[in-house]
């Protein structure tokens, strides 16, 4: 399985690392043979929401060349979903077998059109922002609808 990890400025590193750790361990334990992955972005280096800088090894690749495209969350997704060039690049994942997000990464999947007619979840603080992009926002930790997987966040604002 070939995975594209989408990285962007202002992302929450924990959203990325938690998923990355689980998926890359599948290869170590041979649960899934021939797993490979790339760190993808629209720029050579990104800085997360806490100031950690990461070099990216693939700049704007065609995301349909991957089996799985994963998008983490972060407060910056609230604005990134309106950046036409970034969303156009994410839309190249239309032929990827699976699409997955954690937390507000669902806003990016939604802005790219991948949640149309689907149930999805996100961080509770962004349920209202997800409404225009999907058929139903489900207030659960994890939702699978066809080939799209969305995971919610754990922070509940009261």
Comma- or semicolon-separated keywords:
5 helices, about 160 residues, alpha/beta, Rossmann fold, seven-stranded mixed β-sheet, about 25% helix, 11 strands, two-stranded antiparallel ribbon
Topology:
Elements: E1 2-6, H1 13-28, E2 36-41, E3 45-47, E4 53-55, E5 58-59, E6 68-71, H2 77-80, H3 84-90, E7 98-102, H4 105-111, E8 119-120, H5 127-130, E9 136-137, E10 142-145, E11 148-151
Parallel strand pairs: 1-2, 1-6, 2-5, 6-7, 7-11, 8-9
Antiparallel strand pairs: 3-4, 10-11
Characterization of this structure:
The chain has a single domain, classed as Rossmann fold, CATH 3.40.50. It is of the alpha/beta class and 158 residues long. The mean pLDDT is 90. It starts with a strand and ends in a 7-residue tail after the last strand. Strand 3 (45-47) and strand 4 (53-55) form a beta hairpin. The chain has 5 helices and 11 strands. Helix content is 24%, strand content 25%. The strands form 3 sheets. It has a 7-stranded mixed sheet, sandwiched between helices.
């Amino acid at each position: 399985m070939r995975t594209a990890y989408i990285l962007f400025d202002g992302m929450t590193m924990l959203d990325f690392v938690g998923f990355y750790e689980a998926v890359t361990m599948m290869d170590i334990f041979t649960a899934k043979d021939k797993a490979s992955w790339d760190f993808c972005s629209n720029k050579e280096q990104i800085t997360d929401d806490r100031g950690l800088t990461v070099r990216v090894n693939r700049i704007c690749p065609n995301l349909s060349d991957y089996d799985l495209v994963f998008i983490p969350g972060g407060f910056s997704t609230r604005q990134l979903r309106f950046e036409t060039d970034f969303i156009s690049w994410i839309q190249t994942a239309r032929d990827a077998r699976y699409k997955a997000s954690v937390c507000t990464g669902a806003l990016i999947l939604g802005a790219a059109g991948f949640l149309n007619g689907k149930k999805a979840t996100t961080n509770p603080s962004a349920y209202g922002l997800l409404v225009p992009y999907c058929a139903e926002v489900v207030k659960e930790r994890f939702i699978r609808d066809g080939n799209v997987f969305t995971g919610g966040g754990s922070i509940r604002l009261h």
